[in-house]
Amino acid sequence: MKKRLIGQVTASFKERFAAEPGYIILSPGRINIIGEHVDYNDGFVLPAAINKYVAFAASQNTDGQINLYAKDLDESYSFNLNDTLQPVEQMWVNFFLGVLQQLKDRDFAMTGFNIVFSSTIPMGSGLSSSAAVECGFAYALNKMFSLKLTKQEIALIGQKSEHTFVGVNCGIMDQFASVFGKKNQVIKLDCNTLEYEYHKADFKEYALLLLDSKVKHTHLTSGYNDRRNEVEKGLAILKQHYPEVKTFRDLNEEQVTAVKDELGDVIYRRCLFVVREIQRVLDAVAALEANDFVKLGGLMFKTHDGLSKNYEVSCEELDFLVDAVREDENVIGARMMGGGFGGCSINLVKKEAVNGLIERVSKEYKEKYNITLKAYKVKVAKGTTLYKEEHAGI
Ligand code: GAF
């Protein structure tokens, strides 16, 4: 699949620009085992890059033009390097413009370039296709123009570009996972300090399975930014009561509950979720290290319930998908994954039961919602990489 994707962007690049691409870059989507909506709350997360990618074929040019071609959409966009950049209507273009603006702000020397890209990451499914585009593009520019950006800078540029040109105040998890992903390793990331460590993504007799509700979200129209505002308000109130507190990780459940009346029901429940979820990630890492997958799975179910009832970022279809596996003896953990309001659930399933489970849940889902479920058996893969480099001689 990876080879096919690369073959396709290469052929498309040659057809469009009558030359071999100088660079081929692969930038992966991500899963997250646990730690949802806590990256922007200074918590810990446990994501990993997966074997679904955005592939870029790229080369510098000499005429100062920037030519982008979205192969999957058959849409192109061209402009001059010296043009003033502003968000445009074609959303995919904004991922590129945002990154470029970040580099312009840093006064990096660049020339024009040509890019063709194509993706196997389903869009709007909570697998971070947008972060993969941002980071893959920043990575491509880094290589083409020898900008000497570190991996962390690439991730931060991706995040900032999402804030400024896409309008989603996302945390750092998606970009970090896409860039820092390692084969068969999950990343425990401290979103406050950006310190990270890898843990083996070996779930022994269990497989990771994603079930795509096919309910599409865009974080802009969803409540993502609203949630950020709510928890910010909550933290400000909590800090007045506990002056020693700097971030949510300094708080415990009892402290949050003691201020319940002042927080009000909604903000109280948001804050409660955050404090609990930060702790759950630490417990999950301990469970993973101890090969206690039943414990890990139990925490995933708890995360789902918190996201659904207290953080309110799930939706009926995702709740259905999680409930459909709750009592299944072959499934030890499941929850909605990513920003929410649609997208995928992530499931830990006995390897030999995966196909049967897909069949059963697909049937039930079709009956209930008349939607054809999609299932992805994902593997934990390497982060953004240069697949091929040939000096194009320009
Ligand atoms: C989205 C965001 F982009 C991430 O930063 C993160 O907040 C996630 O939702 C929820 O955990 O993917």
UniProtKB/TrEMBL annotation:
UniProt name for this protein: Galactokinase
Similarity annotation: Belongs to the GHMP kinase family. GalK subfamily.
Domain GHMP kinase N-terminal: 94-182
CC terms in the record's Gene Ontology section: cytosol
Domain called Galactokinase N-terminal: residue spans: 12-59
Example GO BP: galactose metabolic process
Keyword Ribonucleoprotein listed: no
Keyword terms, alphabetized: ATP-binding, Carbohydrate metabolism, Cytoplasm, Galactose metabolism, Kinase, Magnesium, Metal-binding, Nucleotide-binding, Transferase
Lineage, opening ranks: Bacteria, Pseudomonadati, Bacteroidota, Flavobacteriia, Flavobacteriales
PANTHER family in the record: GALACTOKINASE-RELATED, MEVALONATE KINASE/GALACTOKINASE
Residue ranges annotated for the GHMP kinase C-terminal domain, each copy included: 285-366
EC number of the protein: 2.7.1.6
NCBIfam families: gal_kin (TIGR00131)
Gene Ontology molecular function: ATP binding; galactokinase activity; metal ion binding
PROSITE patterns: GALACTOKINASE (PS00106), GHMP_KINASES_ATP (PS00627)
